[in-house]
Design a protein that fits this description.
The protein has 15 helices and twelve strands. The chain is globular. The strands form three sheets. A five-stranded mixed sheet has the order 5-6-1-7-8. Strands 9-12-10-11 form a four-stranded antiparallel sheet. The protein is an alpha+beta fold and 403 residues long. It starts with 8 loop residues before the first strand and ends in a 24-residue tail after the last helix. It catalyses: DNA(n) + a 2'-deoxyribonucleoside 5'-triphosphate = DNA(n+1) + diphosphate. Residues 9-189 form the UmuC domain.
């Protein structure tokens, strides 16, 4: 069994990434509350967060909470370039980097203590140098947590934010972990926290006092096993590079506007997201079989629907048809609860991009997709659009799909 004795896993997480890029590029925004995105908050600076502004919040609510905030439109190209620059710093720091998203990653620095390169020394020294390099080379603040396990390194970075560094030594792990609220445990969202609170369970220490069977009876077998392990800091996962992407997805936050959307308006959102997903799949040479719909509602509850196709494909028409059927099946729930976010993912990814042509139309569909992709590569993504989207706001994606 693999047992790590030293706290040598780093969780590096950029602070309010989109907002920090805006403050970096416009000095007049520094020290001021900044909101990225008008209709829905894509990111908020810490100055705006101090007033209660949060990601995925409706723009109207955000402006009521912080009326003096500066609202800026998102610049996805700038964020992508900043992310690439930061990950170059990560890879210069350690050869073992596991990306989690555009603005965070795990790094294993266990083999760097005795190296003769520029980045060497103890994990704390390496983390301090990493933070300095990101600040100097990319101009962005970053927080780093250091621990013996991936789970605890991520918790440490959450506790150290913003712009901080925190080491959890192996002999102080449980002392650090147990007083924290249950929301610090991976997988514990608002609804799970409410269930735990109803039983008087508010801290990690409270969870650690319960047996696995008791937690399973409260939350289900999988969640019970997970919380039983994490509350004891049992996490044997290594930092791995080259992790295969298990799905390709996109999502859009609707805010309060989702409550009043017509079926045609919602379908336009569906078409936009599927068009983006399938375009990315073809660009990456990937196909997939399972289409997953993810919804979030006014009460912050979530729902998931999925459909598995008989063959792997990247055809926009085929995947869009499956997506529309999933939305139709969830229509009663959408009407009842009020929709605030819709997302799709295609999983069951075939990395070789193999597709089975189904007569009589799939070959024609793929030919159309290829022609559209070629035009967009040459003239830009807006050069060709679907008729249903003409005159409509294409909308902006949220950075991550919900778990």
């Amino acid at each position: 069994m693999f047992v790590r004795c030293e706290a040598s896993i780093l969780h590096a997480d950029l602070d309010s990434f989109y907002a920090s890029v805006e403050q970096r590029d416009d000095p007049s925004l520094r020290g001021r509350p900044v909101i990225v995105g008008g209709g829905v908050v894509l990111a908020a600076s810490y100055e705006a967060k101090a007033y209660g502004v949060r990601t995925a919040m409706g723009g109207g609510q955000a402006r009521r909470l912080c009326p003096h905030a500066v609202v800026v439109p998102p610049r996805m190209r700038a964020y992508s370039q900043a992310s690439d620059a930061v990950f170059e710093v990560f890879r210069n720091c350690s050869p073992i980097v596991e990306p989690l998203s555009v603005d965070e990653a795990f790094l294993d620095v266990s083999g760097l203590r005795r190296t003769s390169g520029r980045v060497s020394g103890s994990p704390v020294q390496i983390a301090a140098q990493l933070r300095a390099d990101v600040r100097e080379q990319v101009g962005l603040p970053i927080t780093v947590g250091i621990a013996r396990t991936k789970f605890l390194a991520k918790v440490a970075s959450q506790e150290a934010k913003p712009d901080g560094l925190l080491l959890v030594p192996p002999d102080g792990e449980l002392e650090f972990l147990r007083p924290l609220p249950v929301r610090r445990l991976w997988g514990v969202g608002e609804k799970t926290a409410e269930k735990l609170h109803a039983h008087g369970i508010r801290t990690v220490a409270d969870v650690a006092e319960l047996s696995e069977s008791t937690l399973a009876s409260m939350l289900g077998g999988a969640m019970g096993r997970q919380l039983y392990a994490l509350s004891r800091n049992i996490d044997r996962r290594r930092v791995t590079t080259g992790v295969r992407r298990r799905s390709i997805g996109a999502q859009r936050a609707l805010g309060s506007r989702g409550n009043t959307m017509s079926p045609a308006e919602l379908d336009a959102v569906v078409v936009t997201l599927i068009d983006r997903i399938t375009g990315r799949m073809r660009k990456a040479g990937r196909t997939g079989r399972t289409v997953v719909l993810r919804l979030r509602f006014d009460d912050f509850s979530r729902a998931t629907r999925s459909h598995t196709l008989p063959w792997a494909t990247s055809s926009t028409e085929t995947i869009l048809a499956a997506a529309r059927r999933l939305v139709s099946s969830a229509a009663p729930l959408i009407t009842e609860k009020g929709l605030t976010l819709v997302g799709f993912a295609v999983s069951g990814i075939d990395r070789d991009g193999a597709q089975q042509l189904m007569l009589p139309f799939s070959g024609e569909s793929l030919a159309v997709d290829a022609a559209v992709d070629q035009i967009r590569r040459r003239f830009g993504n807006t050069a060709v659009t679907r008729a249903v989207l003409v005159g409509r706001d294409p909308g902006l994606e949220m950075p991550h799909l919900p778990d």
